[in-house]
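Long-time lurker. I teach an intro course on protein structure, and each term I like to show students one example going from raw sequence to a predicted 3D structure in token notation. This year I'd like something fresh instead of my usual example. Would anyone be willing to generate the tokens for the chain below so I can use it in lecture? Attribution to the forum is fine with me.
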Amino acid sequence: MRILIVEDDEKTASYLKRGLSEAGHVVDRARDGATGLAMALEDIYDVLVLDRMLPQMDGIELIKGIRAHGNQVPALMLSARASTQDRIEGLRAGCDDYIAKPYAFSEILARLDALARRVQPTRRQAVLKVGDLELDVLGRRAVRGARHIDLQYREFLLLELLMRHAGQIVTRSMLLETAWPYNFEPRGNIVDMHIHRLRGKVDEGFAAPLIHTVPGSGYVLSPQRP
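-- Reply from a regular --
Happy to contribute to a lecture. Here you go:
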């Protein structure tokens, strides 16, 4: 998943970002509520993790602002305020879940997975198939025909995006947003380099290529040439 953390405390944000990244997610972070709102409204995130007490705009106002724009991205609120009334206020503001600090990181992971499955079932489809190519999203395994494909972390993310948009043009900007952090400064043709390596793994040795370049636009994954 692509996850946005809105947290002003450096230690907490670093802890969450490191753990979620190690779990295989692409993680961005905002340090205040106003920045978090602007980033969330770009509509590129699968799940939000937000603190309740934030500078410029607190977590309650942040989630209200997101929902007021019609954005229904799943949101998990973290807070040191643990009373029943505090939980109710967070949920009524528009959060989908609420965890009081301190918390176990394993619980964060479990709740985020549950939110993604419940709110975006098609996004979390476990097995993707295009032609003779199959991608097990949860098991992180790719197979074409009878051959296992060994994918690196970013290659897996790029292939998943291409397969979820099979037959459609996927732009370089979409690929960049999927596999690299929000504030990443791309150097040279880094997306094309990764796609070149991915194409070698997916298409090499097969008569019909699946990954096609669309000049001036991006790439498309399809058994037929676009």
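Some talking points for your students: The chain has eight helices and twelve strands. Residues 65 and 104 are 28 Å apart (CA to CA).
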